[in-house]
Amino acid sequence: MNTLIDYREKIRIHHRSDEAEILEYLVTNFAPDDVMRKRIQERAIQVVKDVRRASGPTLTESFLGQYGLSTDEGLALMTLAEALLRVPDNETIDDLIEDKIGPSNWREHIGQSESSLVNASTYALEMTRSVINQPASRGPLEALRGAIKRLGEPVIRVAVRQAMKELGNQFVLGEDMKLALKRAEKWRDKGATYSYDMLGEAAITQEGADGYFDAYADAIKEIAKVAHSDDLRENPGLSIKLSALYPRYEMSQQAKAVPALAERVGELARAARDANIGLNIDAEEAYRLGLSLDMVEMVLSDPRLTGWDGFGVVVQAFGKRASFVIDWLYALAIQLDRKIMVRLVKGAYWDSEIKRAQMDGVPDFPVFTTKSATDISYICCASQLLNMTDRIYPQFATHNAHSVAAILEMAGNNDNYEFQRLHGMGETLHGALLRNEKVRSRIYAPVGKHRELLAYLVRRLLENGANSSFVNQLANHTVSAEMIATDPFETLKSDQKANQSKIKKPSDLYLPERVNSRGWDLANRTDLNDYVAERAPFAEKLWRSSPMTVRPVTSGTTRKIFNPAVKNSQVGEVIEADEKQALDAIEEARTWDVPVTERANILRKAADLYEQHHGEIFALLAREAGKTQFDTIAELREAVDFLRYYAKEAEKLPDNEPRGTISCISPWNFPLAIFTGQIAAALAAGNAVLAKPSDQTPLIAALATNLLHEAGVPLTALQLLPGAGATVGNVICGDPRIQGVCFTGSTATAQAINRNVAKNGSADSLLIAETGGLNCMIVDSTALPEQSVRDIITSAFQSAGQRCSALRVVYLQKDIAEQFLHMLKGAMEVLESGNPWWLSTDIGPVIDEKAYDKISNYIAAAQKEGRLITQLDVPNDGYFVGPAVIKVGGINDLEEEIFGPVLHVATFENDELDTIVSDINNRGYGLTFGLQTRIERRIDKLSAALKIGNIYVNRNQVGAVVGSQPFGGRGLSGTGPKAGGPHYLPRFYKSVSPMTPVVRGEDLDLATVQTTLDNLPDTSNLPQNHDIMPGPTGESNELFTYARGKILCLGPSAEEAVRQAETARENGCKPLICVPGAKGEHALDGFLPREHLTSLGGIDAVICWSDLDDLRSIRKALSERDGPLIPFVAEEEFADRCLVERHVCIDTTAAGGNVSLLA
Q1: What's the number of domains the chain is made of?
Q2: DSSP 443
Q3: With a threshold of 0.90, does the pTM exceed it?
Q4: Given this model, what pLDDT does residue 500 score?
């Protein structure tokens, strides 16, 4: 006989089982036979006909029938409903209404609904659109129309807000429990009862969790007043969300979360017992299931609940584990000698489960991928429950006629169950059940303020506004009863075929280009156990590394490496290279002269080796670099993605001649991912690589290099040179035999490398620099505060703020700032700082004592000035800095980037957005930017106006994915091209430089050149092209190219300068020709003294094809400038150099769900 442990094991191993295998198991064990299936379908057809004949659709059903997800207008209303009621200021309300109602075509919907109220609402929306779309005033009549618009806005604002409240009233029973109980009398008189749900989503602060607990406790007291029956099944009940009761309801906090939840749920359960009502635990995301079952067992084991049959658990049939969860619940009830309730639902947030699995890179989905598979699972689980009624009281929540018919047929004479529906939906169907079948029916009814309705409302619109939903089809009389009542067992194959192109498995997300990197879901016990077991052997290992060069290095300066989280804990030691060894490595470097397919296959083999050695990599990243468990996984995956991405990119490009020897200098904050990415690109193109890791993290670099060599990369093609930047770095950047330098690090160091290369290196060598930024986010009053707070915490404090992409300044709209900051502080208070080796740790240490001192001193100075808003306490051992929030006026108050867990907060008025954009652009940094808003016009406007490399909308602004979100900045934040994007690898191939003699002439006057430059129009924000990038569902990723701007064309001959200018113009740039003999507009006849290049302002690139000495003098003059590194182009083919890249990533599910999947 199976024990509870056995059943939990089955639940665990079937988390992401093969869909076909699970369905076969369900059908074999629980499905009705063919004869019964035929009866079910006939009964379902009759049910649909009876419901349609009985009465028309409800207002809600009519609304969904007219404005489903397949209409632009439906989507606009959904987003408007989601955001409008929380916006406090009139100006933003007007902007939101204009954004959502203005562009839509309401005229098409006038008179199309069966509901006169829906038709009247449509007419009002069309009138609203006509008013708010009035053109700008050009004459008396237009001026009058403009006045009508201005006078009309307050009226429209009130009307639209009221309309959204009325829409909410269709879904919410009452704003408080007393009102809800009064409104419930109508259906109670018809024989239905209720399960009440207090509106609200997951708590992100302890204060929020306390508020939800109090609301639940108060609700039980009110419900008790109307719970008059001795039969608990006849009394109303309450549904609760565990995520509302504890702000960190997740696996990483299991040790605290489960006991805390058990205590709170136990208290509510005892109150429900005393009131003789049911208490249901709502189902939530798949990753929380294990925790919820732990809590359920703990609560039910309380002997004080003996004899009470009202404890309920919700099971989601779309989950592959549903049947096994039911088995476990039944076994638990037997073992504890209890009777429990099980509410069977189809499932919510299906689209987010798909997206999460794709993003996590796990083997498969935790949910079924088709509607028919979910319907089959529902029927099979219902059959299973109907055979367990000695211990389980089934509650079947459905609006689907076929599902209802199946349950009625399978139940036969067994009446120990009930049906359930959502308030405002399925009324006709369930009314018929009450009249004709004499079965119990319960209404799931949300209770709460309109402000809290948003997420619930949008979820209902998404689930039931889809064309395939029963509610939508029932209201659409063009869909036959036979079609609505289709047998899911028959439609499964066609559904699966249709979904194959729509939903890619996580591993297949980037096929046919490459296999997605493997992920580890630390909320899944199987993955967590593997992570811990594979890492364990390296918990105390001491690594030793030395230069890996053709000429062996066995001795030298040895330096110990310590764990930044535990100051005196040694991780290993490294022998550092010296100047002579670096020169020897340059001498021995050889390009990787094998066919591109061979190079690509070796890089792919290296990717496989990285994944095979994940335990050691995870251990070393934690102990040497201070990475949390989640960050170690992300880092390994990024490194693997780089290897596979550049391997495939190389195979797609012509196998041109490599540049030669490339020096790759990587940072400590991504010591594996960036280290690997630089090397992979250079090697894929056939170059030789000299890799210098950061001083703080040489050990992980050595491990990676060993794996690359093991995969087949020759030692002559890849040599590792750990050592100081002042010695090794200077040598491998400033040698004329070096044909390129890839650097990621600080802006100041990039400038020093640029000057070294210009002075001592090859005149036409490559320099790709990725540097830091003063990254900002704007949060307006339409944004969902809880979502924005989560994104801010991730962006500012993940990796202890030690990401070049990390958020440094958040601008909050003044209307919401006070409340928002209160929530942000509360969410920060439940973060865990500590040793990154532990799963529970959210924030690890900063990298070393120097970083610790600088960040701590900065925070102390802010505190002294009275600008420190809050800072968390952190452990004393190790280099831990408490995450801090500091008040500023804006980006101009920051003198430099503080590379740590420090977030600056500024506030703004709604009309100050243009000023903020100008301030951000004028500071010259351009790496990442975040925007939290529901106003699409604002998204479009800011995305176009900001000179930023990576823009993220309604999500966090860190964690760019290779091949999906190419990463890199502009201006002070980098040279481009973007790493992990299509323009990166081509730069590693040799290019043709004409090298023609210098043409001398009369020197041009600096002031004249500057004036001419200043008079050129700025084209640097004109888009030239854009590509749709692959990625997970529920997210749009677009890569835009923009004109670089003003380009100096220095010939050296007039003919060459004209050719250069033509290419620049073709790519949207504004060229200025400065050569002897130049003619025409935007051309200056004369020779530009190269020293002028040091002081000329407003230039975005310089092109010249002269001899080596002149090229070197140009490059040297440009390198002596302060500020952004100005690209110098000596190649004949340079169209790409005229462009800068901008990637825009938008979370398309932010307003509630993934429309493209659900529609």
Answers
A1: 5
A2: E
A3: yes
A4: 61
Do 1053 and 1075 form a contact (C-beta atoms < 8 A)?
Answer: yes
Same domain (yes/no): 673, 710: yes
Which residues form the domain of 1012? 993-1140
| Whether residue 85 sits in one domain with residue 19 | no
Question: SS3 string of 558-594?
Answer: EEEEECCCCCCCEEEEEECCCHHHHHHHHHHCCCCCC
Do residues 207 and 160 both lie within one domain? no
Structure tokens at 631: 């960050």
pLDDT above 90 coverage of the chain, percent: 75
Q: Which of 381, 664, 804, 1074 is catalytic?
A: 804
Together in a domain, 620 and 632? yes
- Of the candidates 801, 852, 856, 879, the one whose C-alpha atom is nearest the C-alpha of residue 563 is 879
Could you identify the residue written with the tokens 């959204």? 164
Is 1109 a domain residue?
A: yes
Residues 805/916, Cβ–Cβ less than 8 Å:
no
Lateral strand order in the sheet of 1035-1043: 868-871, 884-887, 902-908, 809-813, 776-779, 928-932, 950-953, 1139-1147, 1035-1043, 1023-1028
Pairing, β 928-932 against β 570-575? unpaired
pLDDT tens figures, 819-874: 999 999 999 999 999 999 999 999 999 999 999 999 999 999 999 999 999 999 99
Same domain, 1016 and 1121: yes
Question: Which of 480, 508, 536 is where one domain is finished?
Answer: 508
- Altogether, the residues listed in the chain come to a count of 1159
Rounded to 5°, the CA angle 339-312-186 comes to: 115
- The CATH number covering residue 1114 comes to 3.40.50
Statement to judge: residues 263 and 383 lie in one domain: yes
Mean pLDDT of all residues belonging to the chain? 90
Whole-angstrom distance, CA of residue 1004 vs CA of residue 997: 19
Phi, psi of 522 (to 5 degrees): -75, -5
Last residue of one domain, picked from the residues 475, 508, 541: 508
Task: Give 879-902 pLDDT, tens digit per residue.
Answer: 999 999 999 999 999 999 999 999
Cβ burial of 771 (10 Å; 0-12, 13-18, 19+) is buried
Instruction: Give yes or no: residues 70 and 53 share one domain.
Output: no
pLDDT in tens, 637-656: 999 999 999 999 999 998 89
Q: Closest Cα to residue 95, out of 913, 915, 814? A: 913
Q: Residue 869, SS3?
A: strand
Q: Are 830 and 688 contained in the same domain?
A: no
DSSP state letter for 383: H
Edge-to-edge strand list for the sheet holding 718-720: 718-720, 688-692, 661-665, 738-744, 766-770
pLDDT of residue 449: 82
285: nearest Cα among 323, 342, 332, 241: 241
Which of 61, 222, 452, 770 is catalytic? The answer is 770
Q: What is the dihedral of CA 67, 70, 71, 77, to 10 degrees?
A: 60
Strands (E), 698-843: 718-720, 738-744, 766-770, 776-779, 809-813
Residue 682 forms part of a structural domain: yes
Q: What kind and span of H or E run contains 689?
A: strand 688-692
H helices of 170-252, in order, are: 177-183, 185-188, 206-224, 242-245
804 part of the active site: yes
Q: What residue spans of 830-935 are helical by DSSP H?
A: 849-864, 913-923
Given a contact cutoff of 8 angstroms between Cβ atoms, the answer to whether 736 and 590 are in contact is no
Domain with residue 809: its CATH number is 3.40.309.10
Write the CATH number for 590.
Answer: 3.40.605.10
Q: Read off the CATH number of the domain in which 351 is found.
A: 3.20.20.220
The arithmetic mean of pLDDT across residues 786-814, rounded, is: 98
Is residue 712 in a domain?
Answer: yes
Which DSSP state fits 1018? P
Does residue 519 sit within a domain?
no
Amino acid (one-letter) located at 202: A
